From TrEMBL:
Source organism of this protein record: Populibacterium corticicola
Keyword Signal: yes
Transmembrane segments: none
UniProt protein name: Multiple monosaccharide ABC transporter substrate-binding protein
Segments of skewed composition (Low complexity): 28-48
Stretches for region Disordered: 24-48
One Pfam family from the record: Peripla_BP_4
Chief place where the protein resides: other
Periplasmic binding protein domain segment(s): 51-334
Record keywords: Signal
Localization annotation: Cell envelope
UniProt signal peptide: 1-21
Length: 386
C-alpha cells in the first residue's frame, strides 16, 4: 500500500509542475470551476465523485497556484472539481461551502479565511457524511475536521528567525555564532490574527531570536514585540507598509537605521521594503528582510538584493498530499499522518501530515526555484509568474 501511495503522490507531483509554474499562476476566476469530466480510460477512479475545493483569495499568487494545482491533480484522477475562491470575505466563503454541501460534494478541501468561522459548515458537512480536509490553515473550534495537510509551521518560523540572524551576520551559513554582538535594530511583522498558522510562524521565529533580544544583540526600538502588537490583519501588504511608515517616523530619525525586519510572509516583507524605499533606503542600507511563500515578486527582490530571504513552501507538494488524503477518504482508507499531537483545534487533535520547507536566499534562488521547475529565470527577473 505504501509503495502504491508513493507512486500516486509522485504522479500527482509531476502533474502539479505545470499547475504551479508560470502557466499555472493565472487564469483562475471567482466563478465555479468544474473539472474536466472527459477522462482517459486509465484515470477513471474518481468517476462520478465531486471534490469541493475552497481557497481563501486570489490576491496572493500562492493561493492561485494552490487552487490550480489541486484542481489539475484531481481532474487528472477523474474527479469533478468544484473550485471556489472566497475573495478574502468570510461570508462569501461560508456561502460557497454551503453551496458545495447542498450540491452533494463527496469530500471538502478547505483553505479557510478564518479557521474559526466555519463551524456551521463543518457541522453540515458531518451531517451529510462529507469528510473535511483542512488545507494549510487549521480549522478550529469544531470536532468535524478529518485531516490537516500543511507544512511544519513552527519550523517555518525557526527558519525565518535563523535566516534573519544569518543575514545580520550573527550566525554563519552553518548556524554557528560568529561573535557579532550588534546591536541591530529589528522590527517584527507577523501574520493575520485570524490565521492559526500566524502564531506558529511567530513563535517559531521568536524561539530563535529570544536569546539575542535578551542579550541586547537585537533591539526592537518600537518596543512592539508581542504577537498582538505586530500582527497584520489579512496579511495585508498595504497595512504593513503603513505600519512601517509609522515605525520609521516614530523611531528611526537621523542616523538611526533599521537593520532587520522579521516579516512572516512575502507580502508583509514587500510592504515594509516599499515603505523603506520611500523613506530613502537604497540597496546599500536596506535591512535584512525575511519572507515566506517564494512569490515571484519577492524572488525578484531577492535577485536584486532588496529582500534577503523567503521560505519556499513548495505548494506542489501540499497540493499533491491533499489529493492523496482526499482519495484515501473517498475510498474508505485512513490517511497516513506523520503528526498526531501538535494541532489541537480546541475540540480535537487533528491528525496531520507535515511537509518540509526551505530557506531561499540569493545564493540558493536558482537551485531551489529555477532548477526545480517552480519558476523560470525570466519569471524571477520580471517578478511575475503570469
Amino acid at each position: 500500500m505504501k509503495k502504491t501511495r508513493a507512486l500516486a503522490l509522485a504522479s500527482i507531483m509531476a502533474l502539479s509542475l505545470a499547475a504551479c509554474g508560470g502557466e499555472g499562476a493565472g487564469g483562475a476566476t471567482n466563478e465555479t470551476q468544474s473539472g474536466n469530466t472527459t477522462n482517459s480510460s486509465e484515470n477513471t477512479s474518481g468517476e462520478g465523485k465531486v471534490v469541493g475545493v475552497a481557497m481563501p483569495e486570489q490576491t496572493l499568487q500562492r493561493w492561485i497556484n494552490d487552487g490550480n494545482a489541486v484542481k489539475e491533480g484531481l481532474t487528472e484522477l477523474g474527479y469533478e472539481v468544484e473550485l471556489q475562491y472566497g475573495g478574502n470575505d468570510i461570508p462569501t466563503q461560508q456561502e460557497q461551502i454551503d453551496q458545495m454541501i447542498t450540491k452533494g460534494v463527496d469530500v471538502l478541501i478547505i483553505a479557510s479565511i478564518d479557521g474559526a468561522s466555519l463551524s456551521t459548515q463543518l457541522d453540515a458537512a458531518e451531517s451529510a457524511g462529507i469528510p473535511v480536509v483542512a488545507y494549510d490553515r487549521l480549522l478550529t473550534g469544531n470536532p468535524n475536521v478529518d485531516f490537516y495537510v500543511t507544512f511544519d509551521n513552527g519550523n517555518v518560523g525557526v527558519q525565518q528567525g535563523t535566516s534573519l540572524l544569518q543575514g545580520l551576520g550573527i550566525l554563519d551559513a552553518d548556524g554557528n555564532e560568529t561573535g557579532e554582538t550588534g546591536p541591530f535594530n529589528v522590527e517584527f511583522f507577523a501574520g493575520s490574527p485570524d490565521d492559526n498558522n500566524a502564531q506558529f510562524f511567530f513563535n517559531g521565529a521568536i524561539s530563535v531570536l529570544q536569546p539575542y533580544l535578551d542579550s541586547g544583540t537585537i533591539v526592537v526600538k518600537s518596543g512592539q514585540t508581542s504577537f498582538n502588537q505586530v500582527a497584520t490583519q489579512g496579511w495585508d501588504q498595504a497595512r504593513a507598509q503603513a505600519r512601517m511608515d509609522d515605525l520609521v517616523t516614530a523611531n528611526y530619525r537621523g542616523s538611526d537605521k533599521v537593520h532587520g525586519i522579521l516579516a512572516s510572509n512575502d507580502a508583509l516583507g514587500r510592504g515594509a521594503i516599499t515603505s523603506l524605499q520611500n523613506s530613502g533606503y537604497t540597496l546599500d542600507d536596506i535591512p535584512v528582510v525575511t519572507g515566506q511563500d517564494a512569490e515571484a515578486a519577492s524572488a525578484k527582490f531577492i535577485h536584486e538584493g532588496w529582500q534577503y530571504s523567503t521560505i519556499f513552501k513548495d505548494t506542489r507538494k501540499l497540493a499533491a498530499q491533499s489529493i492523496v488524503v482526499a482519495q484515501d477518504l473517498l475510498e474508505g482508507r485512513e490517511p497516513e499522518a506523520n503528526d498526531t499531537e501538535t494541532y489541537d483545534n480546541g475540540e480535537v487533535v487533528v491528525p496531520s501530515y507535515l511537509l518540509e520547507s526551505d530557506i531561499v536566499t540569493k545564493e540558493s534562488l536558482t537551485s531551489l526555484l529555477v532548477d526545480s521547475g517552480y519558476y523560470t529565470q525570466e519569471q524571477i527577473e520580471s517578478g511575475s509568474a503570469g
